[in-house]
Amino acid sequence: MTLRLNSTDFWRWAYSDFLSNALRGVLAEYIVAQATGCTHRARTEWDAYDLLTDDGIRIEVKSAAYLQSWEQERPSEIRFGIGLKRGWDATTNSQTNVPGRAADLYVFCLFREQAREQADPLNLHQWTFWVCPTSVLNERFPRQKTIGLAALERLGLPRVGFAALAQQIEAASLRRS
Prior knowledge:
- This protein has helices at 7-14, 21-36, 134-140, 149-154, 162-175; strands at residues 51-52, 58-65, 79-81, 88-89, 94-95, 105-111, 127-133, 146-148.
- By secondary structure, it is an alpha+beta fold.
- The strands form three sheets. The chain has a four-stranded mixed β-sheet. A two-stranded antiparallel sheet has the order 3-8. It has a two-stranded antiparallel sheet with strand order 4-5.
- A hairpin with a 4-residue loop joins strand 4 and strand 5 (94-95).
- Helix 2 packs across helix 5.
């Protein structure tokens, strides 16, 4: 009997189902962190936003997929959470009094593969991204809790693949105001 656990074995056992809603969200954060060079900072579970770039851009990452871990009769409807939150700041261990959107930008990540036998969330070609300044959400959807794919598309934001994601985040950060 071993008295020391192996972290790789634990991660493989606990975190291998990338179609799982919760884990896919963390994977989406990691993908955006890869694109922006933020992987040198460990993820903070309950912070007011998901990523902080070296340039000080606060990013909220939202993920959705047509496929889920469980058997489905039809693909899931695509919706992203954009609700106002009372953000918690990990560095000060304090929570804001007024609900809002703490990030400068939202990155909406869609794992778009619909064929279960071909689905591979680690394949970046199976993802599509939209980058939206939070000011646009505040102006167009000030109190809305979720946004569907059609409403997101009507914002006129470009759909981008992983290769163009960093450039799109940089461009959107210049437009935020």
